[in-house]
Prior knowledge:
- The protein is mainly alpha-helical.
- The chain is about 60% helix and about 5% strand.
- A five-stranded mixed β-sheet has the order 1-3-2-4-5.
- Helix 11 packs parallel to helix 14, helix 16 runs antiparallel to helix 17 and helix 17 crosses helix 20 (about 435-445).
- The radius of gyration is 39 Å and the shape is elongated.
- The model is unreliable at about 35-50 and about 110-130 (pLDDT under 50).
Amino acid sequence: MFQMSVVKLFLVILVAASLCVFWYLDTVFIHWDRVLPQPEEMVVETVPEFPKNMTFNEPKEFVPTNEWQIINEDQPIPPGLHVQIDLQTGVKKAKLMENNKNNNTNSLAISDSNNKDNIKDIKSPSDNSHKFRSYEELKEDLKNLNMTIKSDMDVMDELSRKFQEQLKLYEDSDKNLQNILIDLEYLLHQVDTAEVFVKNNGIQLIIIPCINSNSSFMKAQGALLLGSAASNNQKVQIASLESHVIPLLLKYIDDEYTFSVQKNCIFALSSITRRFPFAQKQLIDNNGIQTFLSIFKRPSTELNTKLKLKVAQLLEDLTIEIEDAKLTFKEETNKKLSTEAAERVHQYDGLHLKDILVRNGWCNILGNELIILSNQIPFDEGNHEMVEAAGKSLLAMQKLCKVKLQGNRELYQSLYTLETYYKKLVQNDVFFDELYQLTTELTNTYDPVLE
Length: 451
C-alpha cells in the first residue's frame, strides 16, 4: 500500500512538472505550437554556381599608336597619350604624343569647344557637388588625375607650331607632318577654329607651304585644309582671296599632277568661290573657267570622270546662284534686304559668268556629256549625278544654250532616251522621280520641233 502511494505521488509530481513546462513554453515562445511547413512548401534561395572553367572578360589592353583610336568604356590607358573627348557624342580617342618616352601625363582635348571661355557643362571627376566647372577650374581639378586639358584652339596652336618646326626637318619628318595635317583638318571643320587659324596666318604659314611643296600628299592635304576651313565660312573665304591662293590652286589642276591633288584643289576652289562673287571674279580673271573645261578634253578614265563630275557640280552651283539671287531680289519686300539683294545681283551681272561659259563651249560640252551618258545605260551612281549636274546647268543656261544647241537632233534623241530610262526606273523606285522630271523638262526645252 505504501508502494502504491509512492507511485501515485510520483505521477502527480510528473503531471505538475509537465504543466509547468507547457506554461513556461507558452509564455516565452508564443509561436512554438504552430505547425511547421512541409518540405515541399518551403522556399529556399540558392546561389548560382559558375562553371569551373568560366572566365570573366577583363578590359582589353589599350595599345596606343600614332593614329587616333577609340577608347572603350572602362578601358584603362597608359600615361603619355594625347586624349580627345567629343562632348556631343561622348566618344573618347587617344594616340601617342610626340617625344613621349619620358612623359607620365596624358593630354586631354575637348573637341566640342570653340572657345576657352565657353567650356562649360563639364563635371570634374573628383567633384561630387554636381556643379558645372569653368575651363580654368577644370584644368586645376584634372591636375590631380595626372592630365592636362586643352581646347581646340590650344591643340590647333600647338599643331601649327609643331608643323613649322617639322617643316624645317622635312626630309626626316614627313610622317610627322602628315599626322599634324590630318589632325588640323579635323579641327578646321569648325567655324570658330578655322577663323582663328586664318587670323593667326595659318594660310601663309601652313597651307601655302604645303601646296608649294614637292610632296603630292602635302599638296593634296594643304588644299583639303583650305577647303575644309573655307566651307560656308565667309571670313576664311575673304582671307583666302587676300592670300591669292586661287591662282596657286588652279595651277595644280593641271593633268601632270596626281588625282588627289587635282580633286582637293577643285574642292578648295569650290569652297572659296561659292556664294562669293568677288572670289568668282578672281577665278575668271585667272582663266579658271578655261582650266576647268580643259578637264573635259582629257582622255576618258575613271579618275578623270570623277574630276569632270566635280567641275560640273561646281559650275552648276555657280550658275544657279545667279538665278537664285535674281529671284530673291524679285520677291524680297524688306527694304534693307532688298537693297542687299540688288547689290548681289549687280555683282553677279558684272561677272558675265554665263557668257564666258558659252564662249568657251560649255553648252556643247554639257550636250556631249549627256549624249555619251545615254549610250552607257544602265548607269552607276556617278552617272546619275552627272546627268543631274549637266541637266540642271543646261536648264539654268537655256536662254543661251538653246541658241548653241539649236537643231541638235542627236542631243534631243539622247535626252528622250534618258527620259524613257528614268520613266522605267521611277516605276520601281520613287528616288528617280526628280531625274525623270529633269529629263522630261530637258526633252521639252531642247526639242528641235518646238524651236
